[in-house]
C-alpha cells in the first residue's frame, strides 16, 4: 500500500491506493480488523476469503458504532496459528517415559523402502 496526494478539491489530502501484483491486490496485507460499512462493502469478497481461509475476524463500524462482525462459522473446523499456538502451550509437557517410548518405536520400525525404482 502506498500513499499519494491528490488535489481534486483544491486542497492536498492523502489518498490511499492499492498496489496490484500479478492480478492480485496487496490490500489484504494492510486491511485492519475494524472496517467501516463502506470499506466492507467495497472489499466483501476479500473479507469473506480471509475469514474462510485464514480464520480472520472483522468488525464492521457504521457511524462510529460497532454494528456487526464477520467471523468464521463454528463448523468451519479451521484454527488460526495463534489458536494453535495457545492450544499447544496449554498441553502438559511429556514425561520422561515419552522419550523412551519414542526411541523404542523408532528402533522397532522396519527400514523404509523407497517408493520409487532406482
Strand content: 15-25%
- Helix percentage: 25-40%
CATH fold descriptor of the largest domain: YefM-like fold
Name of the CATH superfamily of the largest domain: YefM-like domain
Record field, number of beta strands: 7
H/E series, N to C? EEEEEHHEEHH
Q: How are the strands of the largest sheet arranged?
A: 5-6-7
Largest sheet: number of strands, sense, barrel closure: 3 strands, mixed
Q: What is the architecture of the largest domain at the second tier of CATH?
A: 3-Layer(aba) Sandwich
The coarse overall form would be: elongated
| Separate helix tally | 4
Commentary on this structure:
- By secondary structure, the chain is an alpha+beta fold.
- It folds into 2 domains: 1-30, no CATH class; 32-108, YefM-like domain (YefM-like fold).
- Helix content is 34%, strand content 24%.
- It is built from 4 helices and 7 strands; from the N terminus they run E-E-E-E-E-H-H-E-E-H-H.
Task: Describe the structure in brief.
With 118 residues, this protein is α+β, with helices and mostly antiparallel strands.
Amino acid at each position: 500500500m502506498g500513499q499519494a496526494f491528490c488535489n481534486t478539491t483544491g486542497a492536498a489530502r492523502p489518498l490511499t491506493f492499492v498496489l496490484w501484483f500479478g492480478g492480485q491486490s496487496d490490500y489484504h496485507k494492510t486491511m485492519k480488523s475494524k472496517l467501516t460499512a463502506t470499506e466492507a462493502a467495497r472489499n466483501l469478497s476479500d473479507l469473506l476469503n480471509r475469514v474462510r481461509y485464514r480464520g480472520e475476524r472483522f468488525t464492521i463500524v457504521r457511524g462510529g458504532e460497532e454494528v456487526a462482525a464477520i467471523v468464521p462459522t463454528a463448523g468451519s473446523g479451521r484454527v488460526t496459528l495463534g489458536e494453535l499456538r495457545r492450544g499447544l502451550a496449554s498441553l502438559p509437557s511429556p514425561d520422561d517415559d515419552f522419550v523412551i517410548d519414542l526411541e523404542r518405536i523408532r528402533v522397532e520400525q522396519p527400514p523404509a523402502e523407497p517408493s520409487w525404482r532406482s
